[in-house]
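Q: Protein A?
A:
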Amino acid sequence: MYRLSPQHASWIFGLIDLVVAHHLFLKFRTVFLRSSHPAHSDRLHLKNLTITGGSHLGLVGVLKSPGQILGLGIMDANVMSTGSRIGMLAGHNEGQIRQCFSFGSAVGESEVGGLVGRNQGKIEDCFAGGSVSGLYSVGG
């Protein structure tokens, strides 16, 4: 397991346009992959992501408006929490997420989703797969 330093966080989030997050110290082991297909070469893929913690948990804890995440894929994610608003990509979305996907598992108490835990923003052309579990308000 590695700890994501603020320097690495700024580099990663620099690839994601205007992300405002407040969970920068994520524990994860990851490989960065660029698609070899010419139509998808601008997309970033993260693999083997593991995040544990409390509420508002995901690669991005909270995505605030006007923040946006574009063309990001997460594969083999494992997000485990004892709190609410849990997702593989974002715990809470108030911004815009487009052309993203996530595969893996997300576990929390409430408002747990494969892509985002709670959405109050806009999500377009995205999908999620895997397992999602919690006590209530659980979905894709």
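Q: Protein B?
A:
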Amino acid sequence: MKGKLLKIYFLGFLVIGLFFGLQALEAQEVLPKGSSDFESAVEIESGEYLVDREIEDSTYEFFKIEVKAGQALKIEMLTPASGGYAGAAIYNPEKEKVIEDVIIGEPNQKLTLNWLSNASGKFFLSIGNEYDINVKGAKYKISLVPYFDASSQEDAADVSKNALEIEKGEFVGYLAGAQGSDTLDFYKIKASKGETLTVKVIPQGVVSEKSKAVLAVGLYNLKGERVKEELAKTEGATVVNTVKIAADADVLIGIECDQFCSKELVKYVLEISSEKPEEGGVVTDGQKTPPPQEKDLGAKSSPKTNWTLIALIVILVLAAIIVLVLLLKKNKNKLETEEPKTGYLGGSEEANKPIVGYKHPCRYCGKLVPPDSSVCPYCQKVNPLGPLRCPKCHNPVNKDYKTCPHCSLKLGIKCPFCGEETFLGDYCEHCGQRLMVVCPNCKFEQLPLSDKCAQCGQPLKKEIT
């Protein structure tokens, strides 16, 4: 009897050992050899991979993977117990680098990259780093994490005409913040005349319950025109937007969170409710009074004509015209003889500054961005606003200048990527790559203006970022 029990125990332990052994082998599938460029990038699937080789510094292996709108491409890196460097980067379907990071020599160090896309397509990823050999034994876990909106198995569109149709109730949605291109969600809901529509949005963290996101919630008509917008007062605050409906109509709800709103992925709870006013007004001290008048969505007003106010406005306008004519006459000679200021595009330095409070088109993709943007939240390119400036003296220059008229710096450079002659700006005019080099000694990022680093003075190996 004891012999039979021992055999049963032995077989049980053997089965358990085989199970966990297979799991370990599956979790450590060897990373296939990637290609050296985008065109021949190797197709890869979600899974855990072990790097069985060293990858030289500034050498990258390229892979590609299909991503659906509303999915986050997630890369988790882990260095071995002996330490070492391990890096990765993610590129969009246009082959533009959108996010990258590197583990610098630490043993058993874990690092995660996330990119939540608002469009479906073939994304690219690279394994390797520019600083040192990518260590043998590093582990990479590649996964596609679904962050679909309102339990729809799809992403809420970022354009009003493709808004996701929902009903009143409670829903969960996701936005990318600084970790993706999914920064705006549009929903469409039916509303009835006379009701007051209330939209409440509560930000939450994806990893933790708390979030520091500063969300914006707007209400729009079907033409895509914004009727009312509310912005969170503090980090992580709930946003409430309320409007009275003037006629039966579809209402669009826009929820926004870009790189200025949050550095991390954001989960939000969307609560939509409505209420209708009681008929016959409100009872106060036994007397019925009419309900208070509110501004309706799309309602037309018919104010009583105030002729006294109109006459006063006409007098003020005439007085302003007379004063303006006198001032123009007085300063006519001065305006004719005064030489315009030179050295700045548009005639003055102030003219080149963006108007505070207004959005301006990005010089690269043409989409409207905030006036203080240092990076375009749509195309991810730096310095999207303002005039082109000389990288040495920072005076404004034109794109067709061969040299700077102020410091005589040559404004043409041979692109290290495509070899074509291009203007010395932030990006190559031909291949679109960013014209920056990193000092191998102090890691200072700079334009390739000299063979030596502008910060530490050491020889500059032109490694393009």
